[in-house]
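Here we describe the complex-level prediction in full. Unlike the single-chain runs in Section 2.1, the two entities below were treated as one system.
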Amino acid sequence: LSKPTDLVQGTLDLLILKVIALEPAHGWSIAHRIRQMSGEVLQVGQGALYPALHKLEQNGWIASEWAISENNRRAKYYTLTKSGRKALDAEAAGWERLSAAISTIVRAM
Amino acid sequence: MRWRDIFRLRLRSLLRRPAVEQELDEELRYHLDREADENIARGMSPNEGRLAALRTIDGLEQRKEECRDMRGVNVIECCIGDLRFALRQIRKSPGFTATALTMLALGIGASVTIFAFVDAALLKPLPYRDSSRLMRVFETYQHGSRNGLSYLNYVDFEKQNQAFRSMGAFTFTTFRLSSTEGAEAASGFRVSDGFFRTLGVAPALGRDFYDGEDLPGQPRTVLLSYAAWQRRYGGNPGIVGQTVTLNGNANTIVGVLPKQFYFGASNAEFWMALHAGGGCEDRRNCHNMQVVGRLKDGVSRDAALANLAVVEQQLGTQYPATNRGWSSALNPLSETLVEDVRPVLLMLLGCAALLLIIASVNVASLLLVRAGGRKREMAVRTALGASRGRIMGQFVTEGVVLVATGSALGLALASWTMQFLLRTIPAGMIEFMPFLSGLGVNWRVLGFVAIIALLAVVQFAVVPALRLNRAGLAEGSRRSSGNAWRRLGSKMVVAELATAVVLLVGAALLGKSLYRLLQVDLGFQPEHLVTLQMAAPRSYANQDKSIALEQDILNRLEALPGTTSAGIASDLPVLNDWSGGTNIRLLGRPWNGEHNPTVEREVSSSYFTTLGARLRRGRYFTHAEDVLKPAVVVVNEAFAGKYYPGEDPVGKRISYDVGRPLSPVEIIGVVENIKEGKADSLDQATMYVPFVHYAGTYFSLIVRTPIAAQPMVGAMTAAIHQINPEIATKDGGSMVGLISTSGSGYQHRATAWMVGAFAALALLMAVAGLYGVVAYSVSQRTREIGVRLALGATPGTVSGLVLREAGSLALVGIAIGLLGAVGAVSFMRGLLFGVSPWDAPTLVAVSIVLAGSALVASFVPARRAASVNPAEALRAE
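The structure predicted for the assembly as a whole is:
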C-alpha cells in the first residue's frame, strides 16, 4: 500500500477536488475513482482520505450532504463549492507548474 | 462558502457533538462495509474481508481522531482536557490544595470585606442630586475648632451670601413621641424649609416643606423617613395628613422621604420643620445649627469662602459682642459625612492589601515548589511531544482553577464577614454611619475581586511557567534545579516576613493606644455607674416645676433597692463632646471683649459624689443649693490653670454668658478634671453650675449601684414612669459599657482588633511560608546533608546549618520590615493615642515575637535534617 506521504504534499487535496468536480461522490467512491482513473497506480490510503475530506469541508471548499448510494444505503456525498472550484483551479495550475518543472529537470538528465 | 457558513459548521462541530460524532462513525462504517463487500466479491470469507478492510484503514479510532482534529474541535477539547487534568492534579494533592485555597480565601476575603466597607463609605455616590456641589458650612472662633452656626447667623448667611444657590439648616433632636402607651424617645432632625431642596431630594410620598413653613407660628409639620413609615405606620399609603404627637405638640405628616435617602443618622425617623426660637436659638452666640449649602454653578469653594468672609465681617461689626472673631469654614459634605471613618478604612484597606500580598506570595511559592517537583513530569511530557504552549497552557489552567475557586471562597467569606462585622458595630455607632446601609456585594466589589483574581492568575500561572521555560525543560530529567527555586523562595519569604512585621507593628501600636486609652484618668470611677437619659414634657420647662421634678426623681432613684447614690446632670461625661459652652468674664480683671469660652454643665449636688470625682479645693454644692438659686460654681483644674494660673480660684468671682446682664458668681470649689468629652480628648476649662439653673427638659441620670445595669435601668425607667408616663427615656446602660461602645473607645477597640486579626493571620502565613521554604530546602539538600554526616559532621552542626539559614532569612525580613514599618506607621499617626509611631519597645517586642516564631518554624525541619541517615541519603536518588 502506498502511504499518503508518498503523494507529493498537497496533491491528495487536488485529486479529491478534481474527482468531486466531475460529480458529487462519497468517500469510498472517491478513493475508488482515484485508483481507477490513475490506472491503479495511485492507491489513496484510506487513513488519509477522511481527515483530508474533513479539512476541505472546514475550509469551505467542499460541502457534504447525506444521500442514498448506489447500493441503497445512506452515504455522505461531497460536492464542490464555489470557493472549492477556485481552489481547484489554483491547485491545478500550481501542479502543472510543478510537474512541468520537475519533468524538465528529469528529461534533461 | 462564506465565512458565516464556515462559522456555522465549526459551531455545529462543537455544540452538536453527538450528531457530528455519529455522522463520522456512519461515514467510516460505510467505507468499511464497501471495502469488505469488495473483498468478499474477490473471494475472501466474510470475516477475512472485514479484517482486511479494517487493516486498510489503519486504526479506526486514530482516523476518527484525525478527522476531529481537522474539524478544529480539538483546541477547545484541549482546554477541557487541561481543565480536567488540572482538577485531577489539584484533587491529587489535597494538602497543597487546602493550604493554597485557605490562604487565597483568607487574603481575598479580608481585602474584599474591607473594600466593601470602603465602597459603601467612600466610593458609593451619596443619595443627593449632584452631591459634589454640596458644602457643610461651619463657624470657627479665632480659627479654632469647627462649630455649627447660631440660628440668627444662619438666617443672615442665607440672606446675604452670593455664593450659594440655597442653604439648609438642620439640628439633631431626640423627640418625645407620645402614643397611647405613654412616651418614647425617637430620633430625628429639625430642618429649615429649604433643607431637602438644597440636597436635591424630593419626598417619595406627599410634599416637601414650602418656603416659610419653618417659621414660628406656622402650623407644625413633619416628614417621615421611609423606615419610620414602614415600621410605625405599616407603609400606610394614606399617611399624609395624619398627625403625630412629638414633644407634646400635634404635627401634621406632610410626606415620606425616599427609601434610599439617608442623612446624618440612620435612625432619624422624624424630620420636623424647624420653628426656631426659644433659648439657644434666640442667641447669636449659641451655635447649635448645622448648615449645608449648594454652591452656585461656577462658584468654587474658595470663592464661596471669600464671600462668606465678607458676610462674617459685616456681622462682626453689627454684633461685636457675639460675632467678633468668628469666621466661616467650608468642607464638602461628602467628606464631613465620613471624616471619622475615612482614615480608619484606608488604613484597614492597606492592612488587607498587605495580607493579600503575603497570602499570594505564599501560594506562589507553594506553586513554585510544586512546579520544581513536576519538572520531570514536564520533561516526560515534552519528550512525548507536548508543545511548550501546551505545557504553559497547563500551568495557566491550573492557576485559573485555583484562583477561581479561591476567589469564590473569598467572596463567600467576605459576604459572611461583612454581615458579622456589621452586627458587631454597636447600635449607638452605626446610627451615625448611615452609609453602611449600602454595604454589600455589588458590581464595584465584584470588579475588585476580578482585578485581584486576574493579578493572582498572572502571578500563579505565568511566573512558574516562565521560570520553567527559562530553566529549560530538557535538563529536568534528573536532579531538578532546586537551587533556583530555593533562591526565589527565600526572596519571597523575606518579603512575607517583612510585610508581617509591618502589620504586627501597626497592630501593636494600635493595641498600645487602646491600652493607653483605657488607662486614661477620666477623673471619676466609671465602674458600677448606671446611666439613663430622659426627656420630660415641655410643661416642666418652668424652673419651679423643673426643680420639683429633679427632686422627685432624685428621691425615687435613691429609694430604689441597690442605689448607693444618685445624681443628675445636663450631659454625661465621656459620652459627649466638650460642647455646650458659654462665655465668661473674670470679675476684678480688665476685660477687653475676649470671649473666654468655657464648657458649662448643670449638675445636682450629688453629681460629684456619685461619679466619684476628686475635690481639689473648696467644696461641692450642698443639698440646699439644689433648691435655692445660689450664685456659685465649681470649676475644674483646667479652668483654674487657664484663668487663675498660680492662684487659688476659690472665692474669685466671675460672670457668665455675655449676652445676659452681669451677675457675679462665686467659685466655691475646684474639682480634678472630669472628661466631659471623649476619652482621647484634651481637658477643657469647665464650670459646673447648680442644676437649678437648668431650664431644659433633657436630664441625664446617674446611679451608683452594685446591681447589674439592665435590671437597674428597668427599675429606674419604672420609677420615672410612676412620676409621669409622658416622660421618655433612652440609652440606659452601664457607664463602662457605654464608654466602650461609643465614640473613641469603640473606634480604638475596633481598629485594634481588626488590625490585630490581620497581623495574627499575617504572622501565621509568614511563619508557614518560612517553614515551607526551609523544609523544602532540607528535602533538596538531603544528599548534601548525607555527605556531610558521612564525613563526620555531627547532627548538631547539621541542624545548626538549617537554623542559620532560617535565622538569616528571618533577620533580613525583620530588618526590612522594621524599616517599612517606620515608614508605614507615620501614615496612621492620627489613629494613635498616647504612643508615638516610632515606639521603640513596640518595635523590639515585634522583632522578638517574629524571631521566636521563625525559630519555632525552622525547628522541625532542622530536627529532620539532623536525623537524616547518611547511608540512606546517599543511596537515595
